[in-house]
């Protein structure tokens, strides 16, 4: 049986280990170990005939993967991915095969990038803008007034930059209150916010 973890969370730009092992323990030195997403080939990483084979590796993983073999004789062979990018997120398959055994398992890689502190970019007449960039996965932006009530934006745009990280910009008509807060969060509960007052500006990040 091939075993992994249901999911792994990695910070954008960091290195991550995707676990994979055999149960019960057995020597996997002479087995084929193939990591792929979403197709069998081209693959993320291939170990075959006792060595790594990069012939048909997906270009986005070139020079960034390593199958750790310190415990391969015990059937433990995690995959290291270096310098994780937003495109690396998704489901990975660990497939193991020999003349006597074969099986596969999956692990979901969730990439997390915490964006820049939101900023009030400009105030035009009665309109206030808030923007933040460098997020992954896609963030949500929320406006609240002094009493904590949500303020509906008059405009909101979300787009990706050259690194496939999300940027968000939103605008509201200035409510009849001296204080408004712009909060940006993503699905992994990362949050940053800024509060703006008519007589000044104060920033609080969470």
Automatic annotation (TrEMBL):
<dbReference type="Pfam" id="PF22705">
    <property type="entry name" value="C2-set_3"/>
</dbReference>
<dbReference type="InterPro" id="IPR053896">
    <property type="entry name" value="BTN3A2-like_Ig-C"/>
</dbReference>
<dbReference type="InterPro" id="IPR013106">
    <property type="entry name" value="Ig_V-set"/>
</dbReference>
<keyword id="KW-0472">Membrane</keyword>
<protein>
    <recommendedName>
        <fullName>Ig-like domain-containing protein</fullName>
    </recommendedName>
</protein>
<dbReference type="InterPro" id="IPR007110">
    <property type="entry name" value="Ig-like_dom"/>
</dbReference>
<dbReference type="GO" id="GO:0016020">
    <property type="term" value="C:membrane"/>
</dbReference>
<dbReference type="Pfam" id="PF07686">
    <property type="entry name" value="V-set"/>
</dbReference>
<dbReference type="InterPro" id="IPR013783">
    <property type="entry name" value="Ig-like_fold"/>
</dbReference>
<feature type="domain" description="Ig-like">
    <location>
        <begin position="1"/>
        <end position="112"/>
    </location>
</feature>
<keyword id="KW-0325">Glycoprotein</keyword>
<dbReference type="InterPro" id="IPR036179">
    <property type="entry name" value="Ig-like_dom_sf"/>
</dbReference>
<dbReference type="GO" id="GO:1903037">
    <property type="term" value="P:regulation of leukocyte cell-cell adhesion"/>
</dbReference>
<dbReference type="InterPro" id="IPR050504">
    <property type="entry name" value="IgSF_BTN/MOG"/>
</dbReference>
<feature type="domain" description="Ig-like">
    <location>
        <begin position="121"/>
        <end position="195"/>
    </location>
</feature>
<keyword id="KW-1015">Disulfide bond</keyword>
<keyword id="KW-0732">Signal</keyword>
<dbReference type="InterPro" id="IPR003599">
    <property type="entry name" value="Ig_sub"/>
</dbReference>
<keyword id="KW-0393">Immunoglobulin domain</keyword>
<dbReference type="GO" id="GO:0050863">
    <property type="term" value="P:regulation of T cell activation"/>
</dbReference>
